């Protein structure tokens, strides 16, 4: 036999299931293909010992799956050890069938110590389940956790390795616990006035099944903390953006160039709009003056009268007297809508003045 086989056989002969040194749940219902985390508590004397998960119903034939001295995370298993709480946690993924496992603490030069638990795999909803195995509460506040079930039996709320509340009300480490039936096939567990020491692994019990839940109790964030966090985020974003701009433009440090550019562009647009508006106003006024001038000139030219005088001598009248008398007849003609600058010969009206010599 190999060393491991001999040790395992010897351990089986000495190990008593239900040992007080290692504690865990006994039966958990899990949906096929899902994952589940199982906590295993141990005594202080085992703080620095190796812990491991062993698969199989029989102690002497179970197989090592994952150990804390080589905590590799595979696609199926992972393990972590919280030595402050004295609890190590194994996570089992992609469950396909009912399986038995052992939570074990390795004992040097002696029999290993551990406890058996079962995973019951269902195709539909589990027999007892919770929406999330990890919940967070705040110091001084209350927390409410809902559990869903499809089995009968008594209800309990327990802290792993400590005491249980088996009635509707009770206390665990001084913290008040209330168990209520919230709706059909749903019951809720409420813990009031949370304290920092309430952090840790708990589990609810319904009939033969248990469901572990990890509670983290922390300080409730204040408005000031939220504001500081938001400001820090904005400042970090601004710094990254500024650095990107400096890299692009070739400027170093806190250059004012981007700020000046952001002001110059809208100012240039405003100046352009003002110049364009003044130009349009100037053109409109000039056009109006030209139209008024043309209208006045047309009106004044329409009131002008033109006349042309021509002189002729009357020979018969010259014989009658040595004194010349000149008479003229002017026939006025009003010229309509003709501009002086555009007049032509055919548009001119002539009047004839005839000279007569008065007989004496």
Give the class from helix and strand content and strand pairing.
alpha+beta
How far apart, in Å, are the first and last alpha carbons? 183 Å
Could you say which overall geometry the principal axes of the C-alpha atoms support?
elongated
Question: Helicity range of the residues?
Answer: 25-40%
- What is the count of DSSP helices, taking H or I runs of 4+ residues? 4
Q: Note the beta-strand portion.
A: 25-35%
Total strands: 23
Q: The biggest beta sheet, please?
A: 5 strands, mixed
Describe this structure in words.
Helices cover 25% and strands 34% of the residues. It is α+β, with helices and mostly antiparallel strands. The strands form 6 sheets. It has a 5-stranded mixed sheet with strand order 2-9-8-4-5, with no helix packed on it. Strands 10-12-17-16-15 form a 5-stranded antiparallel sheet, with no helix packed on it. β13 and β14 form a beta hairpin. The N and C termini lie far apart (183 Å). The N terminus is likely disordered.
Name the descriptors.
360 residues, 5-stranded mixed β-sheet, 34% strand
Q: How would you sum up this structure in a few lines?
A:
This protein is α+β, with helices and mostly antiparallel strands.
Blueprint of the fold:
Blueprint: H1 3-14, E1 22-23, E2 27-31, E3 36-42, E4 51-55, E5 63-67, E6 77-82, E7 87-92, E8 99-105, E9 113-122, E10 128-130, E11 134-138, E12 143-149, E13 155-159, E14 164-165, E15 169-172, E16 175-183, E17 186-192, E18 200-206, E19 209-218, H2 223-249, H3 257-301, E20 305-306, E21 309-312, H4 315-320, E22 333-334, E23 351-354
């Amino acid at each position: 036999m190999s060393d491991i086989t001999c040790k395992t056989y010897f351990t089986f002969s000495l190990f008593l299931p239900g040992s007080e040194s290692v504690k865990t749940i006994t039966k958990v219902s899990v949906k096929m293909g899902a994952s589940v985390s199982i906590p295993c508590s141990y005594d202080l004397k085992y703080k620095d010992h190796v812990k491991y998960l062993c698969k199989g119903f029989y102690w002497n034939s179970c197989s090592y799956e994952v150990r804390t001295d080589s905590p590799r995370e595979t696609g199926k298993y992972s393990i972590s050890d919280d030595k402050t709480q004295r609890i190590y946690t194994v996570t089992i993924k992609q469950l396909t069938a009912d399986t038995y496992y052992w939570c074990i603490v390795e004992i040097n030069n002696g029999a290993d110590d551990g406890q058996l638990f079962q995973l019951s795999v269902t195709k539909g909803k589990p027999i007892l389940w919770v929406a999330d195995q990890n919940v967070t509460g705040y110091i001084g506040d209350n927390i409410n956790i809902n559990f869903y079930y499809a089995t009968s039996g008594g209800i309990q709320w327990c802290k792993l390795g400590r005491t249980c509340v088996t009635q509707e009300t009770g206390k665990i480490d001084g913290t008040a616990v209330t168990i209520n039936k919230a709706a059909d096939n749903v019951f809720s567990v409420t813990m009031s006035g949370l304290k920092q020491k309430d952090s840790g692994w708990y589990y609810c019990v319904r009939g033969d099944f248990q469901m572990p839940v990890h509670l983290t109790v922390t300080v409730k964030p204040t408005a000031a903390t939220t504001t500081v966090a938001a400001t820090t985020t904005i400042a970090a974003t601004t710094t990254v953006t500024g650095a990107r701009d400096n890299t692009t433009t070739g400027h170093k440090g806190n250059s004012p160039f981007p700020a000046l550019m952001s002001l110059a562009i809208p100012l240039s647009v405003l100046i352009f709009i003002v110049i364009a508006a003044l130009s349009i106003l100037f053109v409109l006024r000039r056009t109006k003056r030209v139209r008024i001038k043309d209208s006045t000139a047309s009106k004044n030219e329409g009131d002008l009268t033109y006349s042309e005088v021509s002189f002729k001598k009357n020979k018969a009248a010259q014989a009658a007297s040595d004194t010349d008398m000149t008479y003229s007849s002017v026939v006025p003609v009003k010229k309509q809508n003709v501009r002086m600058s555009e007049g032509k010969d055919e548009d001119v009206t002539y009047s004839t003045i005839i000279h007569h010599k008065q007989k004496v």
